[in-house]
Amino acid sequence: MKIQANQIRPGMLIEHEGRHWTVLKIQLIQPGKGGAFNQVEMRDFRSGIKTNVRWRTQDTVEKLIVEEKNCQYLFSDNNQCIFMEKESYEQFSLQKKALGEQTAFLQEGMAVTVDFLEGCPVTVNLPPTVIMTVVEADAAVRGQTATASYKPGVLDNGLKIMIPPFIEAGTRIVVSTADCRYVERAKG
């Protein structure tokens, strides 16, 4: 199905130069001269290779039709992530390199949706946020306000993110899976 380049959204699957790509990020750029264009960061879901492509807003691209299924993440084994389809209990695997940075947020038993193209699993859609534990946090610098500054912290999955100065090691926080950003302190 053909769509205009300005209708591309993160998470979509598109065909470009004979390959299938997962859209990761989009930026609309409006230069002072000339027409606007979309800067699209995407990953080939077979090989895991990333690329950036620019399309004018009036260009058309081929959007792939996918079947979305509710699944559950089970575990990781070497280079594979194992999932189970909730309706049929059928298990399948995806390469870690095809999932990219998303593998850091996968937790055993997590409910996810998986996009299937021609019966093959191609992409995993995580929940928008996950609860993680801060295992390492720098000491807050005296005199800095909570709204003006952030400090580096390490999560229990090994990711380094910027956190507010009042967050200490052992605190559970909510993290955005889209951009690895601190959202809020976890409740409870």
What is the topological layout?
Layout: E1 2-4, E2 13-16, E3 19-29, E4 37-44, E5 50-56, E6 60-63, E7 67-77, E8 80-85, E9 91-95, H1 96-99, E10 111-117, E11 120-125, E12 129-137, E13 151-155, E14 160-163, E15 172-176, E16 181-185
Antiparallel strand pairs: 1-6, 2-3, 2-6, 3-4, 4-5, 7-8, 7-10, 8-9, 10-11, 12-13, 12-15, 13-14, 15-16
Descriptive notes:
With 188 residues, the protein is mainly beta. It has one helix at 96-99, and strands spanning 2-4, 13-16, 19-29, 37-44, 50-56, 60-63, 67-77, 80-85, 91-95, 111-117, 120-125, 129-137, 151-155, 160-163, 172-176, 181-185. The strands form three sheets. Strands 1-6-2-3-4-5 form a six-stranded antiparallel sheet, with no helix packed on it. The chain has a five-stranded antiparallel sheet with strand order 9-8-7-10-11. A five-stranded antiparallel sheet has the order 14-13-12-15-16, with no helix packed on it. It is flat, with a radius of gyration of 19 Å. The termini are far apart. 18% of the residues are buried. The mean pLDDT is 87.
Shape: flat
| Top CATH class of the largest domain | Mainly Beta
> Sheet bearing the most strands, described?
6 strands, antiparallel
- CATH-scheme architecture of the largest domain: Roll
Number of strands: 16
Helix content: under 10%
- Strand arrangement in the largest pleated sheet: 1-6-2-3-4-5
**Structural class, from helix and strand content?**
mainly beta
- Unreliable spans: none
Radius of gyration: 19 Å
Give me a quick take on this structure.
The protein has 188 residues and is mostly beta strands. Helices cover 2% and strands 53% of the residues.
